[in-house]
Structure formats: C-alpha cells, structure tokens
Amino acid sequence: MPIYSLLIFSCVFLFSFFGGYIYSNDAYTLHSCAILLAPSFDYFLGTDRLGRDILARLMEGGKVSLIIGVGSAFIASFLGLILGSIAGYFRGNVDKAFIVTVDLFLTFPTFFLLLALVSYVNASAWVLIVIISITGWMTTARLIRSESFKITSQPYIKILNIAKVKKTKILFKYYAPILAPIYFVSFTFGVGGAILAESGLSFLGLGIVAPQMSWGTILSGGKDVVEIAWWVSFFPGFMIFLVTFSLINISNYLQQITNKKQIQN
User: Fold this and answer.
1) Which of 114, 122, 131, 237 has the fewest C-beta atoms under 10 angstroms from its C-beta?
2) Are 211 and 64 in contact (CB under 8 A)?
3) Any idea of the CA torsion for 92, 98, 102, 105, to the nearest 10 degrees?
4) Rounded to an integer, what distance in angstroms lies between the CA atom of residue 130 and that of residue 126?
5) pLDDT per position in the chain (265 positions), as tens?
6) What pTM does this model have?
7) Which H or E run includes 104?
8) Cβ contacts of residue 137 below 8 Å, gap of 6+?
9) Rounded CA gap, 35 and 46, in Å?
10) Cα–Cα distance between 201 and 35 in angstroms, integer?
C-alpha cells in the first residue's frame, strides 16, 4: 500500500483547496515594496517579480491544476472505457472503425496535437479539460478493448447473447465490474499526465490565461528570473513533482493488484 504517496496527494489536495482558510494572504495582491523577496517569516515561500505571495498563489493555482487533472482524466478514462468495451463486445465493423479512429489520433504526437487544438481557442480551465480529454482517451480505450475481447470469448457471455439478454445489461452487469480496475489505473495515471500537459501548455504561454493561474503559469512566470529568484519556479515545479510522483506510485499499486487478480483467475 503506497501510504506515503496517498498521504502526499491528500496533503497537496488539502493545501490547495483548504489552505486559504488558514493562510489569509491574497494571491492577486501586488506589493511594490516586496518584489522578488526570498522566503522569510513574512513570505514563507517568497514573492514573484510583481510582489505577489508565492505560497498564496500555489494554493490558488493548485485548485485549477487539480481540477484540470482530475476532470480531464475522468472524462478521458470514461471515454476509453465506453469506446473500448463497445469495440471489444460488438467486434466486426464497430471494432474496425474503432481501430481506424484510434490509429488516426495516435498518428499525431499527443503534445503537438494539444498545441494545435489550443492554438484555435482561448484556453480556460474547462476548455483545457475538454482538449486534454480528447487527446488522452486512446491508451485506455485500447487496454479496455483488449480485455473486452477476452470477456466476449467467455462461454457465459455467449450464453447470454443466445438468450437475447439486452446488450446494455450485459455491458454494465458483466463487463463493467471486470473492467473497473483498469479504469481506475488509467484514471490515476491520467491525472498526473493531465497536470503535466496543462503545465507544459501554460509554461509555453498557451494554457491558463491571467488573471487565472495554475502551477504551470506560476512556473512560467519565474523562468526569466530563475538566476536571481530560484524560489519562483522551484516551488510550483516541486508541487507538480509531488502530485505526479504520488499518483504514479498509486497507479503502479493498483496495476499490481489488477495483475494479481488476473493471474488468480
């Protein structure tokens, strides 16, 4: 059980969504007399080049980054679950259309596809959730399809089809419980990937637009002063590292459990 990873992710979540109730400094207030101050008792994580409190900004930006990560991972994994299970169950032309669609998406590198889509719209948290979801469902769908093929070949599924049981009932009652572990593994892994994708876009200036902020935008704001104010870029980068590292460990643990169950079966 990855206790430390769960504890780290829980602490980051509480820090982002409830830290503001304890730490009252505003994330948007400019302090002209406190520009690029190093971490101190007045500003625990220092200030940026506009005199804004880094700690307060990490809390505010963490909300956006986590919402984008969880939201896009949920939608992408859910799309992969639905499309993959349908392709594995119906097979034939449905499966062929699925393969063509997945191959078409995988033809383009994911990050460049993200750049292409973001360049045509004004990015916001909800727009990024949709765009990252569109570019992130293929891997989950292929895993689900492969497992669905195995389920479809089972004798009890063939008996249910002969008995003309409703296909929706078969999918939800017999496929969903078996495919759920793969979904949760993909979801936890997808959250970290989505946060990294959003951070990369924001770092390039194509993600969250001011006055909104995320860890990626805070990180981007410190790239020009990294030689004289390391703390501006270090702390948002460290938060991104903590979240992705803990989620990867949790995902690996869930995958190990899934593999053990498959071996036992």
Assistant:
1) 122
2) no
3) 130
4) 6
5) 689 999 999 999 999 999 989 998 889 988 888 899 999 988 999 999 889 999 999 999 999 999 999 999 999 999 998 888 888 888 889 889 999 988 888 777 766 777 777 777 766 788 888 888 888 888 888 888 888 888 888 888 888 888 888 888 888 888 887 888 888 888 888 888 888 888 888 877 777 777 788 998 898 888 888 888 999 999 999 999 999 999 888 888 887 877 676 555 5
6) 0.85
7) helix 92-107
8) 75, 76, 77, 79, 80, 83
9) 9
10) 26
Q: How far apart (Å, rounded) are the C-alpha atoms in residues 64 and 230? A: 23
Place of tokens 């500003």: 43
The DSSP secondary structure of 199-234, one letter per residue, reads HHHHHTTSS--TTS--HHHHHHHTGGGTTT-HHHHH
Backbone torsion region of residue 91, taken as left when φ is above 0, otherwise alpha when ψ lies between -120 and 50, otherwise beta = left
Single-letter amino acid code for the residue at 55: L
Scored b (16 or more CB within 10 A) or e, 213-222 reads bbbbbbbbbb
- Which residues are CB-neighbours of 164 under 8 A, at least 6 positions away? none
38 secondary structure, DSSP code: P
Query: Residue 219: CA atoms inside 13 Å, Cβ hemisphere, count?
Result: 25
Q: Which helix (H) or strand (E) holds 58?
A: helix 54-90
Residue 168 tokens read as: 């929706």
